[in-house]
Write a structure and sequence with these properties.
The N and C termini lie far apart (214 Å). The strands form nine sheets. A five-stranded mixed beta sheet has the order 2-1-3-6-10, with no helix packed on it. A five-stranded mixed beta sheet has the order 4-13-12-7-9, with no helix packed on it. It has 503 residues and is mostly beta strands. Helix content is 3%, strand content 60%. Strand 29 and strand 30 form a beta hairpin. The protein is rod-shaped.
Length: 503
């Protein structure tokens, strides 16, 4: 007995995979065994640890701490366990729960169990290895396929990216969460990045779609999107899969810049001094869209044009082949000389890359001279029935400038026969009457009254273009006058000659 009492040792046995490993310490003797140590990757796995006091004395304040330093194997519950006492020839059992990640390969792994206990107020600490065996590799239940028609893109292009999620397992899965993550800065997921499927039966699939934008700087070649999938199996295990989704940039998209074209819709309009008018401008967009367009019209430096409203106009956005019209109300000075007055239209915009651009066009206001013809005397010219006469009048130019090569031509004379219906007058100055004469024959059948002869006046303007104006020449048809003729033998002289016998 004395020999046994002097033995300062304790037998500690750990049952691992059916083997008992003794560990010697101060009496009493303690055996540690682990059961249910065959684990499945990707699953939650409970194991059983048994503490058996085979010594002669009780143990107090027993503390067990199970530690895993193995990547992919973690202790979920019962990491730390405490008991008050283990009597001699008694045992305690507890079940830590381990999670084995799907990435853990099959094989044997070792956890560390630290035991702290008191015997006769003396603290003893020992560490026991706990071996576990990953006997089944992870069997994925989810397969994701990228639809081929949405797998090829152009640089600087945005489009749909469609996938099909399929349950390839042999049982239903629930609460499927799919998170899409871009793996490069050369593209952006512009659509949804999180999808949820309530449940998916074995062999079933579901289509999902998002959209991506390829940046202009992206090079040709393969790219990937990472899909992280979380789901629960029928046993309540929360599983995770990481799936790589491939796509390809196959060609470059030529980046076009917007071209803004300005058209002056008043180009053929006649603008005379003193007139208030609207300068109407058409803005067309081609090649690429333009955004936040603003137009500003800068007027002439001489002050001949005065704005009667805002000269800065917000146009907004224009898509490719889009157009719009803007109008600026202006007043032309009454003393403005004939000829073109240049103005400048400046368009500021932002392209699809956020770069500001400017387009400038010259808009010309064509000032025409003030030209108006009339007769100096507008009272009707008298002609007699059945006789030939002359229409003599003076043509007066009321205007702001001289005109050249003036011709006058009777276009419609009604019942009056014009024998010489045109006359070349040459240059005409403002306020300088020019006489003209037109021969006319009035048939006897022409009724009495006032007739208006439609007369066309042609001339050469300041831009050397032939212009036309029309006036009316009023003609009054009157009765012919009968003249009384006196014979040389009539009257008092005829009586004296007859009295005196003179012939």
């Amino acid at each position: 007995m004395k020999t046994n009492r002097t033995i300062l040792s304790i037998l500690l046995l750990c049952m691992i995979a059916g083997q008992v490993i003794p560990v010697f310490s101060v009496t009493p003797r303690l055996e540690v065994s682990a059961n249910n140590v065959y684990l499945k990757a990707g699953k939650i796995n409970p194991i059983t640890i048994v503490l058996n006091n085979t010594g002669d004395f009780d143990l107090q304040e027993i503390e067990a701490i199970l530690v895993s330093s193995i990547p992919g194997i973690s202790v979920l519950t019962n990491v730390h366990k405490v008991w008050d006492t283990i009597s001699n020839d008694d045992n305690l059992t507890y079940e830590p729960v381990l999670y084995v990640d799907q990435s853990v390969n099959m094989g044997t792994y070792t956890l560390q169990l630290q035991l702290n206990y008191l015997r006769s107020a003396r603290l003893t600490t020992i560490t026991v290895p706990i071996s576990v065996i990953v006997s089944e590799a992870f069997q994925p239940s989810i397969k994701i396929i990228v639809n081929p028609e949405t797998q090829k893109f152009k640089s600087n292009y945005g489009g749909s990216f469609s996938i099909t999620v399929e349950n390839i397992g042999d049982s239903m899965i629930k609460d499927v969460d799919i998170v899409l993550t871009q793996t490069s800065t050369l593209f952006v997921i512009t659509g949804s990045q999180l999808y949820q499927i309530k449940e998916l039966a074995a062999g079933k699939n579901q289509g999902l779609s998002t959209s991506i934008k390829i940046l202009e700087s992206a090079q040709l070649g393969p790219y990937t999107i990472t899909a992280t999938v979380y789901y629960s199996d029928i046993d309540g295990n929360r599983l995770k899969q990481v799936i790589t989704l491939p796509f390809e940039i196959t060609s470059y998209e030529i980046v076009k810049s917007p071209i803004l074209v300005v058209k002056n819709l008043n180009a053929t309009s006649s603008i005379t001094p003193g007139v208030r008018f609207k300068q109407v401008i058409r803005v067309e967009c081609s090649e690429a869209s333009a955004y936040n367009i603003k137009a500003q019209l800068s007027l002439d430096g001489k002050g001949q044009l005065t704005p009667m409203g805002p000269t800065t106009i917000a146009i907004g956005d224009l898509q490719v082949n889009g157009f719009t019209q803007i109008a600026v109300e202006l007043q032309l000075d009454g003393s403005a000389l004939p000829g073109p007055i240049p103005t400048t239209l400046t368009l500021r915009y932002v392209d699809s890359k956020g770069i500001q651009g400017t387009a400038t066009e010259t808009i010309t206001v064509n000032v025409d001279p003030l030209i108006n013809f009339r007769l100096l005397d507008e009272n009707p010219i008298s002609l007699q029935q059945g006789k030939t006469g002359k229409l003599e009048a003076d043509l007066l130019l009321i205007g702001t400038t001289r005109v050249e090569f003036v011709s006058l031509n009777i276009e419609d004379s009604g019942p009056i026969l014009i024998t010489s219906g045109s006359e070349y007058l040459g240059a005409v100055d403002p306020d300088s009457p020019v006489p003209f004469t037109i021969s006319a024959n009035v048939p006897s059948s022409t009724g009495l009254g006032v007739y208006r002869l439609q007369t066309k006046i042609t001339y050469l303007d300041n831009r050397n273009n032939f212009q036309e104006r029309f006036i009316e020449i009023p003609v009054k048809i009157v009765e012919a006058t009968i003249q009384q003729t006196t014979s040389s033998d009539g009257g008092i002289w005829g009586w004296i000659k007859a009295l005196l016998g003179w012939k």
